[in-house]
Amino acid sequence: MKIGLAQYKFINKDITFNLAQMEKALKEAAGKVDLLCFGEAFLQGFDSLSWKYEEDKTVAVTKDSPEMQTICDWSKEYSVAIAFGYIEREDETLYSSYAFIEDGKLTHNYRRMSIGWKESPETDNHYKEGETVETFSFMGHDFELALCGDLWDVTWDKFVTNAIVLWPVYVNFTLEEWQQEEIEYTKQAEKISERVLMVNSLSREPVSHGGTFYFKNGAIQNKLLYDVEDILIVEL
Q1: Are the CB atoms for 89 and 105 separated by under 8 Å?
Q2: Which pTM was predicted?
Q3: Residue partners of 119: CB distance under 8 A and separation at least 6
C-alpha cells in the first residue's frame, strides 16, 4: 500500500482554488498511490473563519454538499482514496473535520477533539469539537485519525495506538523554529504510534512553509523539503 502526503498550497476562503489544487495533486498521484492525504482544513483554508456564526456557516460545508460530491467523484475517476480537512457544518454546528473517501463514498468523518482550531474567547456554542477517536481499516491496515493539537492536548494519551496514525496539521512555524519543532514533533509521534504520517499545507497569508513527515519508531523516516509543493509517498 502506498500513501501520498500532499504538501500543497491553499488560499483561505477560496474553495474553488483549493479544489483545483486537490485535483492537480490527484492527477499527479493517480496510479502511484492508493490514498492521497491533504492537511487540516484544506478545503476552505485554516484561517477561513471570522468567528461570527452567520458568516462562518456560509463558509462551512455539509457532508452532502456539492463540494463533497465533487471529491467523491474524483475518487472514482482517479481510483484513489482521498482524505482531507474541511470546516464542516451539521445543522447549526461547525466542526474542524477530516473526511476519508473511498471509491466515491465518504466512509469516515473525524471531528477534531482539541479546541485549538478556533478562537475560543470569540466563539459560541455553534463551534464544537468531536468526542470520538476515529479508528478504521483500509486495505487490510488499521488506521487512526488525529488533527493537529489532538496529539498535543492534555488528553493526547487517548490516541496511543498500534494503528498507523494519519496526523493532518496546520502550523506556520518559521524555518528557524522548525529546527527545534522537528525534534519535538518526532518525540511526540514516538509516544503515539510506531508509524505516524504528518501532513501540513503551504500558505502565504499567513506564511506556512509546510512540514510533512513520515515518523517511524521515533525517527524521521522521510520528509518533504520546506516551501516546495510536492507529494511524499510512503510505502507500508
Answers
A1: no
A2: 0.97
A3: 51
